[in-house]
Amino acid sequence: MSYLDFVIEYLPKLAGGAYITALQLVCASALAIVVSLVFGLMRLSRLGVTRGIATVYIEFFRGTSLLVQLYWIYYVLPLMGIKLGAFESGFIAIGLNFGAYGAEIVRGSIEAVPKGQWEAAVALNMSPGQRMRRIIIPQTFPILLPPASNLMVELLKATALVALITVVDLMFVAKQINATTWLSAQTFGTALIVYYAMARFVLTPFLRWLEVLAARKVGKA
Amino acid sequence: MSTQNHPLELPEGSPLVRFSGVTKRYGDLTVLDNLDLDVGAHEMVSVIGPSGSGKTTVLRMLMTLEKIDEGVIYVDGKPLSHMERNGQLEFANEKYLRTQRTNIGMVFQQFNLFPHMTALENCIEAPINVLGMKRDEAEERALNLLDMVGMLEKKDQHPTRLSGGQQQRVAIARALAMRPKVMLLDEVTSALDPEVIGEVLNVIRALNSEHKLTMLMVTHQMGFAREISDRVCFFYEGKIAEQGTPDQIFNDPQNERTKQFLSAVLDAN
Amino acid sequence: MEWRWDFTIEILPRMLSAMLNTLLAAGIGYTIALVVGLIFLLGQRTKFRLCNWIVRECVEFIRSTPLIVQLFFVYFVAPQFGLVLSAWVSAMLTIGLHYGTYLSEVYRGGLEAIPRGQWEACRALNLSPARTYFRVLIPQALPASLPGMGNYLVGIFKDTPMLSTIGVVELMHTANALGAETYRYLEPYTMVGFMFLIISLPTAAWLRKFERYVGRSMGITK
Questions:
Q1: What are the CA-CA distances from residue B173 to residues A48, B135, B239, C119 (Å)?
Q2: pLDDT mean over A25-53
Q3: Over the stretch B236-261, which tens digit does the pLDDT of each residue have?
């Protein structure tokens, strides 16, 4: 079987898997963004308890392995009566895990806004909410987006792990094809190329576009 | 590239440094425009002028930090920017540059001390590894130089522990340790707090009066340039608009640009 | 389902010895990655544009694709070409290559963080290129690279559970096996998570300390 025949025969199946991978990416990123904002802001709270909760969350999810969290949510939670489907378990584990990394990016970018900006906002008698929303947050985007973009590419790669809890994504389909054909080079090679194309030619250009947009908003482009 | 008009070597008795028709461009922008400039042995030349006039570029090219586009720079009678091949001048390669660079030392605006080495280590690094000096000898000379710039007791400190003025004095000692024939001083006080500028200027004064070192200095300190220089060059848009003794330039400038610049600078003070 | 302490204690010795394999895998993988990273870095800084471009694209490809897929690729593809790699060898090779790309970026970032003035001072003092790199640039790039290097050490450690999928007998593999033998998953999986936590947290803290120590002892930070 030539590689061309292989592609013609199996590309539709792989494309189906890639679609599920993309869905995982979208759901997990959405959750991760919410988690990042909540815990990132909590880390900057004046209340020690709030900061403490955020710190524990972040250290816990960063300190244990994503695959362990995935297995735990999918295999152990049902034993406690919380039953989630494979797809939900997948994006929830990834979202919670990457949210912990994202929270640190959110915190760092807010702290990176020069102190003078806070002071100027205070001098203009803005309320704490106004200071955050009108002055600080808009300035964080250009700082936050480059590391957040890297994290997003990592997130896309991490979705391949959901195949291990039976989500029929690109990796899962590749494993299936490999098990029936044993054309491993073609199968996994094609899967790698599809992942690469998604990261390099879809996700990255989109994120670069966002970065340019954000830079323009604060007059840096 | 025309180097035909440029001799392979300058005749005996020529000035120590000669810029001959030197042009430097960054893209469309001409930073130096067909510059001719001589610096004689033991001469102290100050370069003044508005920012963007090409002052610092002169030093950076003489230090071979940047390539020139046209013309030739000579040091000690030999071409610096170029080398001879088959009776023709062509751009110098790195090997040739390394032989010629030993003639020149430079002190930077931002000091550029090596942060992971102590003051003393900064001063012996190149003498040992470039000049091939013995460690004892290099240390002895470095200690003398650090003493001269008043930094002997801080010899074992890392740069992060030193004030700007102290770092700059170490940087001067480091450059001197290479025994350059020409010293380049690039706005050496611009990054310093006002109260420590004096200590650095005093060191330069001593170099000038006691050691009669050949120096080319870019500066914004007009009073200092006036006091210490043998000659002052006023740069404007990549050219020397006017040059002469400090007395001529500061008391009786002929060029309109010079007058404008000096009155603007002196007003500000 | 109730947590059973007797079962926990019963399986603890097996879990601990599996942990040794996990640490071993992380250590070997990291060592290979450190070297591979250097090769990738130098491969992009040669005089030959074509070589730089090829290495650059390879790094980009490896960085943009999932480790788990690469793991399967290496493990299953080698036999197709008559080369049988054991699970361990495939795993170490894949981790070394994958994380080597990250480390090459860390090294590059460290070099680029050095102010231009340092290069210029080296030229002004006429230091040779070798001297410039080994005595001035690398000693300064190292402290700047340490945080990234430390992160990827912990990163490799946390990625080792993936190795269970091709049959490397590490912690996750052992937890799976225990689950299959006893039909109890609560304790093994929870213990795996806990064991990762108690190793990665102190390691991360220790690495921060080590970075500060190196910075201070080189005189770069106060």
A1: 52, 16, 31, 18
A2: 95
A3: 999 999 999 999 999 999 999 999 99
Q: Which residue of C has its CA nearest to A187?
A: C73
- Per-residue pLDDT tens digits for C116-163: 899 999 999 999 888 998 889 988 898 889 999 999 999 999 999 999
Class in CATH terms, A3-217: mainly alpha
**Residue of chain B whose alpha carbon sits nearest to that of C139:** B116
Element (H, E) at B34: strand B29-39
Query: Which pLDDT band, with edges at 50, 70 and 90, does A215 fall under?
Result: confident
Digit-coded pLDDT (tens) for C60-84: 999 999 999 999 999 999 888 888 8
Which residue from A67, A49, A143, A131 is spatially nearest to A104, judged by alpha carbons? A143
The token pair that represents A63 in the structure block? 């300190």
Amino acid at C22: T
Q: Which of C60, C62, C73, C85 to mutate to test the interface with A (most CBs of A within 10 A)?
A: C73
Is the pTM higher than 0.95? The answer reads no
Interface test with A, best of C76, C151, C174, C194 (most A CBs within 10 A): C76
In the sheet that B29-39 helps form, which strands lie side by side, from edge to edge?
B29-39, B17-26, B70-75, B78-79
For residue C146, give its domain range: 5-217
Cross-strand bridge partners of residue B47: B218, B233
Q: Indicate yes or no: CB of C172 within 8 angstroms of CB of A68.
A: yes
Which ipTM value was assigned to this complex? 0.91
Q: Does C18 touch chain A (CB under 8 A)?
A: no
Q: Rounded to whole angstroms, how far apart are CA atoms B31 and B29?
A: 6
Chain C positions contacting chain B at CB under 8 Å are 115, 117-118, 120-121, 123-128, 131, 135-136, 139-140, 218-222
CATH number for position C21: 1.10.3720.10
Contact status of A3 with chain C (Cβ, < 8 Å): no
Q: How many domains does chain C divide into?
A: 1
Q: How far apart are CA C28 and CA C104, in angstroms?
A: 17
Contact at CB, A157 and C172, closer than 8 angstroms: no
